[in-house]
User: Which sequence fits this backbone?
């Protein structure tokens, strides 16, 4: 089993996907979070259509049984002792005791037990024991440990965890390779001309300057991961607005920096030949012809929002930036104070694009399960009807949530109050492209 560690956004998930594709493995993703218990890694409780509760295997156990590749994404977030306590026997000996009382045996143990006679074999099968496939493998992805913070979650590689994996570090790309990668991605997205390559060169110069000054904690919010560099390069390939592309790459962080941090950032921008980022929204022009190309033909026009939009100058500038990011195939994060018109801007943009909308509002008790499925109580029907004879009245059924409906039908999902939800509830937006885990 392998542990792949590296900086955030350095391409760990992409590398794991390529690795699995080369070896012909099916991957099963498990997103790890701080409050995840040992039981959650193995099994969880579920409810059938008749209201009975039962144990259901986690993606990790399913991978062990079917011989798939389990990807533990973000193991650095797990509480100390959770990983070793839950998965130590499974990773070391391919043996595990599950919360429902059943056992998983390694292939060699299973073969030995099966050869002990029919009585042992029958008892083993009756107990629900199962065999771990010899092809089963685990790849864990995590951030680099931070030795400067002893006792904190950053220093997550302890003596126990270090015995479970073969560790591999994903180092930063050398500058020539990084430049070639960014230019290739930009040219694949759009035909990048010489001016675009010059803008990309300035972008990389700024990124290297910030990384060289990494010892300064004030510049940490301005560091660009490989994922952010590639996302910005796609914008630069089609737009002559380096400062605006950087502004969107920072995800509005630059606007909320302290004054002394902004001064340091502007100094590095000037040294890289980039004009200072404005603290207000920048305009990214989008021609009516481009807007026509982005318009969709909705299958359900009633889902296209219709709002009364007042053309305010600042709103129009933000709307242009949103449309520019949309045209680059990127997901949008709209940040602002309460009551400034974020929902109205989102609805008006979708109205211009004739795009169907699904709506989800998050809160502090939102879970990943509640984002993917919605419980529905079947209505009572007239006695004697076919539906009533099937006994479906009053039964709780599970239906696709708005998020899943949007993913299946190719609609846009508006996630409101995203800052209220816990980290694990936002797992659906992680990765490139975003992934949905257990339903």
Assistant:
């Amino acid at each position: 089993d392998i542990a792949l560690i590296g900086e955030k956004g350095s391409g760990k998930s992409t590398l794991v996907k390529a690795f699995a594709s080369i070896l012909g493995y099916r991957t099963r993703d498990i997103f790890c979070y701080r409050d995840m218990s040992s039981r959650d890694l193995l099994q969880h409780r579920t409810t059938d259509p008749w209201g009975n509760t039962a144990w259901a295997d986690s993606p990790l156990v399913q991978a062990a049984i079917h011989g798939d590749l389990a990807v533990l994404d973000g193991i650095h977030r797990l509480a100390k002792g959770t990983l070793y306590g839950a998965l130590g026997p499974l990773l070391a000996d391919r043996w595990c005791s599950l919360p429902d009382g059943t056992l998983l045996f390694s292939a060699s143990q299973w073969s030995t037990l099966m050869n002990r006679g029919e009585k042992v074999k029958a008892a083993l099968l009756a107990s629900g024991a199962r065999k771990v496939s010899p092809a089963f493998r685990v790849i864990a992805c995590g951030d680099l440990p931070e030795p400067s913070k002893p006792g904190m979650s950053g220093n997550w590689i302890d003596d126990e965890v270090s015995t479970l994996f073969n560790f591999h570090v994903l180092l930063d790309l050398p500058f020539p390779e990084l430049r070639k990668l960014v230019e290739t991605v930009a040219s694949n997205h759009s035909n990048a001309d010489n001016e675009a390559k010059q803008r990309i060169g300035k972008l990389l110069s700024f990124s290297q300057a910030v990384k060289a000054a990494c010892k300064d904690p004030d510049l940490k919010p301005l560091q660009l991961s490989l994922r952010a560099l590639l996302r910005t390069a796609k914008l630069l390939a089609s737009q002559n607005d380096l400062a605006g592309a950087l502004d969107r790459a920072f995800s509005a962080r630059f606007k909320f920096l302290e004054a002394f941090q902004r001064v340091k950032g502007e100094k590095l921008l000037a040294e890289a030949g980039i004009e200072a980022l404005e603290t207000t929204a920048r305009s990214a022009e989008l021609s009516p012809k481009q807007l026509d190309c982005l318009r969709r033909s909705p299958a359900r026009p009633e889902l296209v929002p219709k709002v009364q939009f007042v053309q305010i100058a600042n709103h129009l500038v933000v709307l242009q930036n949103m449309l520019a990011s949309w045209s680059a195939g990127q997901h949008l994060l709209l940040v602002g104070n309460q009551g400034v018109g974020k929902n109205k801007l989102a609805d008006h943009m979708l109205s211009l694009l004739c795009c169907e909308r699904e709506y989800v509002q998050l809160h502090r008790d939102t879970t990943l399960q509640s984002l993917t499925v919605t419980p529905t109580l079947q209505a009572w029907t007239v006695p004697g009807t076919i539906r009533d004879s099937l006994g479906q009245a009053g039964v709780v059924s599970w239906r696709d949530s708005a998020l899943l409906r949007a993913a299946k039908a190719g609609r846009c999902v508006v996630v409101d109050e995203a800052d209220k939800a816990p980290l694990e509830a936002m797992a659906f937006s992680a990765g490139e492209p975003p992934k949905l885990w257990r339903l």
The first strand starts at residue 2 and ends at 6. Residues 358-439 form one domain.
